[in-house]
Specification:
By secondary structure, the chain is mainly α. It is 73% helix and 0% strand. The N and C termini lie far apart (64 Å). The model has no long low-confidence stretch (mean pLDDT 88).
Length: 161
């Protein structure tokens, strides 16, 4: 359903704040907020599904994911003392809008061609608006990994045959 695309956006931000809480050692607070969200989900499902069927379930999913974002963002601010910066958001939204336009325009054609064009438009606009740098783009395709030597010797103090 088209409605669930909004849940996907909320899931992205909910996961972002969940991980910040885990890294900030606030798992107990995270679990309490997720229990509240789960209880709200059960209540909304029990009310909306009998009356609205799968549309009620979709609305419940979106509202639950929104609640998770709101609760975890508040907890992140309170316990981790972190609030994300919205600097550069306009550039990202512009790039995302242009990508959506390219996808809609190319929808009658091959999914692969439309998807490829969408990614190219998105990255090109992110780069041209300086939302990302050339180095960041290169880091996606060319990662430098350090070689880790593998030792075949037994640790000191170990018995050998």
């Amino acid at each position: 359903m088209r409605l669930l695309i909004f849940a996907l956006g909320c899931i992205f931000f909910g996961h972002y704040f969940n991980m910040l809480l885990v890294v900030g050692n606030a798992q107990k607070h995270l679990m309490k907020s997720l229990l509240v969200a789960a209880a709200c989900n059960l209540l909304l499902n029990s009310v909306l599904i009998p009356r609205y069927s799968y549309t009620g379930a979709a609305v419940t999913s979106v509202l639950t994911e929104m609640l998770v974002v709101i609760l975890t963002a508040a907890l992140t601010s309170k316990y981790v003392r972190y609030s994300p910066s919205l600097k550069g958001s306009g550039k990202v939204l512009l790039s995302g809008g242009a990508m959506a336009g390219a996808l809609l325009w190319l929808a009658p054609y091959s999914f692969v061609a439309a998807g490829t064009a969408g990614v190219v438009v998105y990255v090109a606009l992110l780069w041209s608006t300086r939302a990302i740098t050339s180095e960041e783009i290169k880091s996606i395709f060319f990662t430098k990994t350090a070689a880790v030597p593998v030792s075949t010797e037994l640790p000191s103090g170990g018995a050998s045959a």
